[in-house]
Amino acid sequence: xxxxxxxxxxxxxxxxxxxxxxxxxxxxxxxxxxxxxxxxxxxxxxxxxxxxxxxxxxxxxxxxxxxxxxxxxxxxxxxxxxxxxxxxxxxxxxxxxxxxxxxxxxxxxxxxxxxxxxxxxxxxxxxxxxxxxxxxxxxxxxxxxxxxxxxxxxxxxxxxxxxxxxxxxxxxxxxxxxxxxxxxxxxxxxxxxxxxxxxxxxxxxxxxxxxxxxxxxxxxxxxxx
Length: 225
What we know:
This protein is mostly helical.
């Protein structure tokens, strides 16, 4: 049961983008097309699952004084692996994503799950947590990218030559510009918060609290301290 909850929590309850509001730098940068979003999401998911598993397996032998540097070395190993694989087999996607693949090393989602979950739980639960968080991250990226690409380009590039073109002609270029990323994310976040509150009221439950974007409410620290 704990393993199942760890998996589902990363997708919905603790979605890294729409609930924890983490990893916004790559989120806003790569979501100009669905293909880029899926590529980044799959790369980050690979690193999440592998790094969570290794951190959990080594949690009893890594000294507390150097656990963060050790986590970074582990994460960097898998980031280098996926970066080389993408350059070898998906060169066009690798070039499109550019520096944001190497920057997964310092992505707060990856390090956050290692520090908050993997170093305190078993390997199976940590793998489930990494997979769930990776899927949640990928779905969030895909949603933002789909809205931005459809509105801004009138098309949807799913993967390679697989694309839906000429969806509409009244394109709004702002959607695929940097400012459009912030606007799209804000509107989707507001919509998700509203739907969550409506669903909670229908069940007679308390609406989920809004995300508090300050250090006092950081979910990576126990009791927000």
